[in-house]
Amino acid sequence: MSNTAAERTHTVTTEPAAHRVRVTAGGHAIADSSRAIVLRETGHDDRYYLPRDDVDFTLLQPTESRSHCPVKGDADDYWALASDPATDVAWSYPTPFEYLQPIAGYVAFYSDRVQVDTAEPLAR
To answer: What does pTM read for this prediction?
Structure first.
């Protein structure tokens, strides 16, 4: 990465989410987690990454989509709703760059394609 002013001010951070994260589509619960990680990246909305154990994969199906982010790495796992296989709704970075290991293998959802609810704060 070159050292432009924009790159020096571009930040990515992760931390445990302070809220329970519920993901639904068409009235069906796809995921529910009190162990999510929130990823904050300059210029992007916060994204919640959930452990795979908290995702109901019976409602999802893998797709052939792949992407590369110069900040996070390769997203090699994508899923669509089984009821709408043409539209990706979730992705994962199996092996993100070293500084983002907390999200390795966790699943994030497109909040404009499914409902991502973070209204319930966790008791800490």
So the answer is: 0.90
